[in-house]
Amino acid sequence: MDKLLELISDGKFLEATVQTLVYVAIAMGVGGVLGLVIGVALTVTRQGGLLANRPVFWVLNFLVNFFRPIPFVILIAALQPLARVVMGTGIGDRALIFTLSFAAAFGIARLVEQNLLTVSPGVIEAARAMGAGPLRTILTVLIPEGLGPLVLGYTFAFIAVVDMTAMAGVIGSGGLGNFALQYGYRQFNPWVTWSAVIIIIVIVQLVQVLGNVLARRLLRR
After folding, report:
1. What fold is seen in the domain 2-219?
2. Widest distance between CA atoms in the chain
3. What's the CA gap between 131 and 22, in Å, rounded?
4. Which of 9, 115, 138, 178 is at a distance of 20 to 30 A from 216, taking alpha carbons?
C-alpha cells in the first residue's frame, strides 16, 4: 500500500493513466477512420454490392484476414521495421501508436463490414431508384442506416485496443498495463497491480455504457 501511495504522489499512476488514454484515442482516431474506409470498401465491392469488384474485394479481404488474427505482441515485432520507416523509430510511444493504429484499422474494418451488411438491401435499392449515385448512397444511406451497430462495433474495438496497450512495455512504452507489470507484478505488489486493473475496468465500463446508450438512441430513430 505504501508503494502505491508513493507512485500516486510521484504522479506516475496518473501519468500511466493519461498515456493509456492518449494511446487509445490516437489509435481509435487513425485506425477508426482507416477501418471505416476499408470496411465500407469490403461491403460495397463484394458480390452484389454497390460497386461489386471481385479483385478489389479479394485483396482487401485477404489483407484483413492476414493481419487481424496476429497476436498483438507478435505484430509489434513484425512491424518494427515498418514503424522505423514511417515513424522514424521502432521503439517507444510513436512505434506503439503506429502498431496500435495498424491493428485497430484491420480489426475495425471487419466489424464495419459485418455491421453494414445488416442494412436492409431494400433501403439501398430505394435510394438507387431515386437516382442517388454510389457515393451518395454510401454516405447518406448505408453508413447512417448502420450507425447504431457501428457504434457498438467501435465500442468493442475501443476495449480491444485498451487490451493491446498492456503490451506497451515490450517496446519501451508506458501506460497502465506496463505500470501494473513493472511496479506491481514484477515487484510482487498486488496493491499496485489491482489499482491499475480497477482504473482500466472503470475506463472500459464508462465507454461501454456510453456506447450502449448512444447505440440505443440511434437504433430508436
Report:
1. MetI-like fold (1.10.3720)
2. 69
3. 43
4. 138
